[in-house]
């Protein structure tokens, strides 16, 4: 057995790959979805809002008070197995599974937009330098770069987070919107480009909307969003606003 194959065998024995959805050890290296999970993934169910990508019963368009992105899509509901996958990627440094997560996201994009994706560049929701140092990586960036490698659309860092904020997961919906106001700045390189903005989870949509607003301020031609998962929380509000994107 050659040295590289021997090292791969030792690694697979000591550190077997795990299914990102349930954590079970995989029999084959390089695979991250077990057969049981593949049959029971929590896909977002119809009817779906064509703007925020959530089910119509949990649409957040009205709550955001105007959208700066054209559309947001997600392959999965942030629940059960998909929640486990996000925690594996985000909090357990299971970055080797990023390409698997990216493939699910890219598959959803092709389902919505067809074989030729209408984007000039892929970018991602940024973290502050302190946040990156604390975690060791930005999961949104790794997802964006994995999608870029799969589809061939270039990935670029077009956004900066210029204000340290509280973790969005600790806040309610109204607090989330105010927490990220004015926190992002966009590069002039986004001007006239059709941008695909990537993040791991869409909850209230406030972070994605603020990033899209920053990109609109530097004259990005359009901003669309894709996340690995989106929260589905039924709400009793007025119908979402329709019409042009605010610019």
Structural description of this entry:
- The chain is of the alpha/beta class and 247 residues long.
- The protein contains nine helices and seven strands, in the order αααββααβααβαββαβ.
- It has helices at 3-14, 35-38, 61-64, 80-91, 98-113, 129-135, 139-151, 173-179, 206-217; strands at residues 71-73, 76-77, 121-124, 159-161, 184-186, 194-202, 222-230.
- Helix 9 (206-217) links the parallel strand 6 and strand 7 (222-230).
- Mean pLDDT is 86; it is low at 1-14 and 237-247.
Topology:
Elements: H1 3-14, H2 35-38, H3 61-64, E1 71-73, E2 76-77, H4 80-91, H5 98-113, E3 121-124, H6 129-135, H7 139-151, E4 159-161, H8 173-179, E5 184-186, E6 194-202, H9 206-217, E7 222-230
Parallel strand pairs: 1-7, 2-7, 3-6, 6-7
Antiparallel strand pairs: 4-5
Summarize the structure.
Helix content is 35%, strand content 13%.
Number of helices: 9
Integer average pLDDT: 86
Secondary-structure element order, N to C = HHHEEHHEHHEHEEHE
Shape: globular
Largest sheet: 5 strands, parallel
Q: Give the terminus-to-terminus CA distance.
A: 61 Å
Q: Please give the share of residues in helix.
A: 25-40%
Which range does the strand content fall in? 5-15%
Compute the CA-based radius of gyration. Answer: 18 Å
Structural class: alpha/beta
Number of E strands: 7
Q: In terms of per-residue confidence, which ranges show pLDDT below 50 for 5 or more consecutive residues?
A: 1-14, 237-247
């Amino acid at each position: 057995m050659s040295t590289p194959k021997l090292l791969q065998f030792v690694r697979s024995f000591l550190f077997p790959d795990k299914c990102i959805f349930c954590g079970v050890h995989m029999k084959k290296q390089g695979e991250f979805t077990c057969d049981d999970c593949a049959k029971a993934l929590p896909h977002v169910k119809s009817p779906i809002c064509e703007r925020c990508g959530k089910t119509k019963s949990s649409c957040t368009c009205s709550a955001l008070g105007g959208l700066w992105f054209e559309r947001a899509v997600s392959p999965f509901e942030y629940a059960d197995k998909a929640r486990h996958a996000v925690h594996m990627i985000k909090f357990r440094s299971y970055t080797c599974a990023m390409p698997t997560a990216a493939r699910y996201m890219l598959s959803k994009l092709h389902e919505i937009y067809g074989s030729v994706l209408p984007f000039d560049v892929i970018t991602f929701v940024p973290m502050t330098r302190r946040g990156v140092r604390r975690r060791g990586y930005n999961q949104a960036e790794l997802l964006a770069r994995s999608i870029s490698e799969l589809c061939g659309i270039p990935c670029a860092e077009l956004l900066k987070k210029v204000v340290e904020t509280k973790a969005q997961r600790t806040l309610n919906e109204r607090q989330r919107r105010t927490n990220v106001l004015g926190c992002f700045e966009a590069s002039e390189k986004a001007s006239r480009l059709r941008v695909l903005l990537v993040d791991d989870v869409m909850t209230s949509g406030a972070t994605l909307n603020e990033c899209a607003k920053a990109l609109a301020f530097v004259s990005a031609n359009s901003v669309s969003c894709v996340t690995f998962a989106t929260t589905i929380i039924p709400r009793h509000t007025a119908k979402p606003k329709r019409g042009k994107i605010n610019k």
